[in-house]
Amino acid sequence: MTDEQFSERLLIQLRSSPEIVLDASSRIVILSDLHMGDGSSNDDLRRNGKLIASVLELHYLAKGSTLVLNGDIEDLQKFSLAKIRSAWRGVFSLFDRFAHEGKLYKISGNHDDKLLEEARYPYPLHPGLRLAWGKRTIYVFHGHQASGFLVKHNDLSGAFVRYLLHTLGIRNRSPAEDSLRRYRIERRIYAFSRGAGLVSIIGHTHRPLFESLSKYDRLRFEIERLCAEYSGADEERRTAIAETVGLFKAEFRRMGRKEKRSGPSQGLYGSDLLLPCLFNSGRAVGKKGITAIEIEAGRIGLAYWFEEGKARRYLEREAGPAALLEGTPYRRILIGNEALDNVFARMDLLS
Fold this sequence. Notes:
Elements: H1 3-15, E1 19-21, E2 27-31, H2 49-61, E3 66-70, H3 81-87, H4 89-100, E4 104-107, E5 125-126, E6 129-133, E7 136-140, H5 148-168, H6 179-196, E8 199-202, H7 215-230, H8 235-259, E9 278-280, E10 290-296, E11 299-307, H9 314-319, E12 323-324, E13 330-339, H10 340-350
Parallel strand pairs: 1-6, 2-3, 3-4, 4-5, 7-8, 8-9
Antiparallel strand pairs: 2-10, 6-7, 10-11, 11-13, 12-13
């Protein structure tokens, strides 16, 4: 599948997707990649099950947010729907409460596309969701559409995972664990978004992105900014900068070793100025918490939820103090936050 074919197909999909008209009172939360299983040790959501239930009920439902589930919610490539619904009754009851209020949109992904064949599935399924901000468009879709292989052979891929890898206890090497595949998908969607003049919000790769930047990129730019500030700072500020840079460097190097990359990842988008047109809600199956994209009061943010004491040390230095979800051990940090008007203005000025 060429980039042109992908763009044509995605524009057709976009036109067939439902639309929400946003205003200053809109509250939207976008979650993807829950990978709900049977509750066993092979269930990817088992680690964060209590966290996701608490966050949905005590924060987003309580605030009247509209919940957008952006694909790969049930992992039907490994488990049957009956086993998943039995293991996660509490979470499904929360989905029901959002749906009862007309505030649930469910988008299909490559791990749960078989739901389209379920006649009794309780929630409408969509290929994507358009969010209209004035005359501008934000398009929410899972992201697997950028993989020619998955578009053509997802059934084969699912059968391979379920009947061979899962049976033998071998982990599937998904785009989330394969840097090259992940970057190809992100690069293709970035190019589409840039060309169409819209913002895309995806999941699939499990890598949170804010304004087209990964955590790795943001850390690198922040380290450079702090180094530039250092020479003109007073002694007290220099001490604080040195401590912060130390924390950021340690995390930056950890990520660099993990990714095994030799160059800055923003180069994958090309040599031109980077447009803030690609966002990724990340995943709900992270080892240290979950991430989500929030749209509220005309602003877009990347939220990180975690259990108290389990976040990486650099985060509160980068994003500020974490807010406690009352009555729970869970906390929330906004890693990125920007006005939608500013996002689109920058896209227009830089394109």
